[in-house]
Design goal:
Blueprint lengths: L4 H9 L8 H11 L1 H13 L8 H13 L4 E2 L7 E6 L5 E7 L26 H20 L8 E7 L7 H7 L6 E14 L3 E3 L2 E2 L3 E10 L3 E2 L9 H19 L6 E9 L6 E2 L2 E10 L2 H22 L2 E10 L3 E2 L1 H15 L4 E3 L11 H4 L4 E9 L17 H17 L12 H5 L1
Parallel strand pairs: 3-4, 3-5, 5-16, 6-15
Antiparallel strand pairs: 1-2, 2-4, 6-16, 7-14, 8-12, 8-13, 9-11, 10-12
Length: 428
């Protein structure tokens, strides 16, 4: 069986990549931070803030960075941190983490359980922040002790509002990518064993379009529906037809998922309301499928409107492209992951996820890649966005080492000329 480019690179490298000493110094620097990194993660877990409200989280991270001699700035929104360190003349690589939490009740019985009612870090953003902090501090320690093998310039981006797909655009508008030539990130993965990572070239997550539907009818008495144009009846038809017809009109080999997660209408059991509002998402892996699915959804709305007499307004907002991982940057992550975890612990991800990530916004501007960091143990296997989600905390140091090593390797002046392209350039 022929091997892929990542496996071949490992074969070509053999054990030579383990011979240099800066990796050992970096590992030691991050290991010495382990207590602080776990403390940071637990503090963030105890005091989570939802998208758009990450003010204290920002202040906390900014103070911690400054205590380590790292200068950070916040955008005008006072949410999120941009932190630079390194030689001004060298190329700059960004490392990104997200900092927002979800409106989910934390049901874990642990000392660091969320202290904010109905708010929880159920997607690992607390761990992402601790990982990035560890990577930045490890790199700075090597700089202060002249342990870097060559000039390294890195930018840390602690990004708000990932869960609402607005934060990356906010940070780009605030100049987060100014002077940046590449970007890397990680996301914890509860379906992957702790001590392993997953990599995938190209499309890694789905395009995600938020759906907003307003149905305007004529309300009335529940006993006289014939005198009304019932928007709840129309909403029920719209959901049923969307779930069945969209999948019947799109090739079954082309992934498309439409899900409604919010319906609001009416306030009394015996009153047919005037209007109903619905929100959901549409996820696809291919732009052509995305276009066809949108057209089909519009057609369903028209058909239900004609059949029920209810006016239906469809709006697609917060359109988010897929994460498109650069293959050359994935090779750097492969090498770093192999050094930290062992070659057998770096796995290829066979299929793209139908989840979404606004990391894709950065990739429309510069090449980048995101790796999946395994966090599962026998005791900890709760899925993302669940009420008892937790991580194996030793993986924080693993992620920090991989990100920091990758930043150093990317800055190697002897690295072959970068042939990377942005996701936008490749899609065009």
């Amino acid at each position: 069986m022929p091997v892929d480019r990542v496996t071949q690179r490992l074969i070509d490298c053999g054990d030579s990549y383990m011979d240099t000493s800066w990796q050992q110094y970096l590992d030691r620097a991050i290991d010495e931070l382990s207590g602080e990194l776990i403390e940071i993660r637990r503090h963030l877990h105890q005091y989570p803030e939802i998208s758009g409200h990450e003010y204290r989280t920002t202040e906390f991270l900014l103070e911690r960075l400054q205590s380590r001699g790292l200068c950070g700035i916040t955008p005008d929104t006072k949410r999120g941190v941009i932190c630079d360190d390194g030689e001004a003349t060298a190329g700059k690589i960004a490392l990104r983490a997200d900092i927002d939490a979800l409106q989910i009740q934390d049901t874990k019985q642990v000392a660091y359980r969320s202290q904010h009612e109905g708010v929880m870090h159920a997607c690992g953003h607390d761990a992402h922040s601790a990982i990035l902090y560890g990577a930045l501090c490890g790199l700075r320690q090597l700089r202060l002790t002249d342990g870097l093998p060559w000039p390294v310039t890195v930018r840390g981006i602690f990004q708000p509002a990932e869960e609402t797909a607005k934060g990356a655009r906010e940070m780009v508008a605030a100049g987060a990518l100014s002077g940046v030539s590449a970007i890397l990130a990680t996301h914890v993965d509860p379906h992957r064993e702790a001590g392993s990572i997953g990599l995938r070239d190209g499309v890694s997550t789905a395009n995600c379009d938020e759906i907003r539907v307003r149905l305007q009818g004529v309300g009335g008495h529940a006993a006289r529906p014939h005198d009304t144009r019932d928007p709840i009846h129309a909403a029920a038809q719209l959901i049923q037809n969307t779930y069945s017809l969209v999948s019947r009109k799109i090739d079954s080999q082309d992934a498309v998922i439409v899900t409604f997660g919010h319906i609001a209408g009416g306030s009394n059991s015996n009153v047919i309301p005037d209007s109903v509002e619905m929100r959901g998402t549409m996820r696809t892996l291919c732009n052509q499928v995305r276009i066809r699915a949108k057209e089909q959804l519009q057609q369903v709305c028209r058909g239900v409107s004609e059949a029920t007499g209810v006016e239906i307004e469809l709006e697609m907002v917060n359109e988010l492209a897929s994460v498109f991982n650069d293959a050359d940057l994935n090779e750097i992550l492969m090498r770093s992951g192999s050094e930290v975890l062992g070659a057998g612990r770096v796995e290829r991800i066979p299929r793209a996820s139908m989840g979404s990530e606004d990391f894709a916004v950065y990739l429309e501007q510069v090449p980048g890649a995101m790796f999946r960091l395994g966090i599962a143990t026998e005791e900890l296997r709760a899925p993302l966005h669940s009420t008892n989600f937790d991580i194996s905390e030793e993986t924080i140091m693993m992620g920090a080492k991989i990100l920091a090593r990758s930043a150093i390797l990317w800055c190697d002046p002897h690295r072959s000329l970068d042939k990377s392209a942005t996701a936008a350039e490749i899609r065009s």
